[in-house]
Amino acid sequence: MMPRPSLLARLLPTLVLLGACSAGAQPRPATSPSSAKPTLVVFVTVDQLGSDYLERYGADFTGGLARLRDQGATWMRGRHDHAIAETAPGHATTMSGRFPVHTGIASNSQGVNTTASPLIASDDVGASPFRFLGTTLYDWMAAADARTRVLSVSRKDRGAILPIGRAKVDVYWYAMPGLFTTSRYYRDTLPTWVRAFNARRVARAYAGRVWEPLSPPDRYAEPDTNPLEGNGRDYVFPHTLTSDTAAVGGAIRDFPWMDSLTIAFALEGQRALGLGMEAGRTDLLAVSLSTTDAVGHRYGPDSKEIHDHLLRLDRYLGQFLDELEGRVGRGRIVVALTADHGISPFPEWRSSYYANHDAQRVDVRPAWRAAYAAMRAAGVDTAAAHDDDGFRVRDLDAFRRRNVDPDDIAAVWVQALRPLNGVLRADLVRDLAKADTVHDDLARRWLHMLPTDGPVRAVVTLEPFAYWQSVTYATHGLPHDHDTQVPIIFWGPGVARGVRGTAARVVDMAPTLAALLGVTPLEPLDGRVLPLRP
Ligand SMILES: [Zn+2]
């Protein structure tokens, strides 16, 4: 319906094209019958791509998202079956086949950041998989064939690190002042190809660029005039990326072009490392695209901006797949795609799509006041517990010295939470352990999240679509469908197309890929193998 090549040439960032055309070597597609083993597995995790985004805006897709959805084995409403629907636990689940309670990654705040592993060429906070437990698909592939090559790329540290687990391999993410780097957990210097990519000062090329809607105005049903977006600042199209070259490296993270930059970097790495280029060997490319999350947080899931960003993401992914197929060869690539979590609309935005009409903000401070009063009465320093994933004991000895059971204080917290508006339930973790996890979905999701003997002694679950009082942007993180439902898609040789009706969980993706590749997981998994053929 539209002149596609010129449209692509006009809309796609020059950098992706540059990545496709630079570096003179001719692609050497592995040539074998299409029944042969794939030479490349591409695992794409789109941050915040909930099922609703695909269902709501998917009719407009014509690019990579459409191709994967329509040609692949697709579970439109897959899900994360854990409670805290955030980036770190989601990414840790994708390729481990295990729930957060077994990967050790329960939330962003208990994720990858550590001063023990500073970054190379960036002052951003250090990061490593120091909390991650166990193995991932990469480890299983490498155990089956030591020649296996791997690259993981993301805008976010946790999005690059956690899908791979603990392996000290090529793992890179975007950091200030606007470059791709890694931490000293992985290496002491950046390889030549990463330095060459950064030397192009890629983010600066976008300084001053204007983000206009991709399609004609009548293609967007969403209003563009809600001041809830962006905290009332710059919430109407067009959006202009700062022309200050010192600031553009940070500002670009909220613009769709950040995803095309990430893809350009992934393509550069695929070429440098020769991923997928050798028949008989299967390599792994993990790409985590973070901009859907940035745009969704800033403007909300009902915004014209998220709609437009998804149209662009669809096109970026289409070109990414085209480029990879051109290099590696048709029928040699298996793609898996999912998301780390979904999103909830602003409570004040009565959504035309989500049933959030009773949504409210919840102030849990009264419960903390009650808990701290109980601690003071028992002679326990109030610093010994704090609000992090629930009622978290920070200093168990402070309780022991006063002969106080932390669960007794956590029970006070739970009792104070239950009557609050917007609180669905509050539970001691030890009580959740006795729940019927077949029928009690929320108890099961919390138990998939937290160990019953860990520092978090009690948890609170808000009503669907409720927000924490203090949050000033659109967000996610609850164990309900709007935050946990995500598409699960497999595409490529060995995968029969079709929409699958049966339930699928993100934790099932790694075992499914392992079965497809004929490699054996190195430990017991929580996931099971999904049917890729009818
Ligand atoms: Zn997010």
The pLDDT mean sits at 93
Helical proportion, percent range: 25-40%
- What low-confidence regions span 5 or more consecutive residues with pLDDT below 50? 1-34
- Strand composition percent: 5-15%
**Terminus-to-terminus distance:** 33 Å
Structural category is: alpha/beta
What Rg is obtained from the alpha carbons, in whole angstroms? Answer: 23 Å
Count every helix, treating DSSP H or I runs of 4 or more residues as helices: 20
Shape: globular
Strand order of the largest sheet: 5-4-3-8-1-9-16-2-17
What hetero molecules are in the model?
zinc ion
Write structural notes for this entry.
The chain is α/β, with parallel strands linked by helices. Helix content is 33%, strand content 14%. The protein is built from 20 helices and 17 strands. A nine-stranded mixed β-sheet has the order 5-4-3-8-1-9-16-2-17. A four-stranded antiparallel β-sheet has the order 11-12-14-13. It has a two-stranded antiparallel sheet with strand order 6-7. It starts with a helix and ends in a 17-residue tail after the last helix. Bound molecules: zinc ion. The site of zinc ion (ZN) has 5 residues, from helix 12.
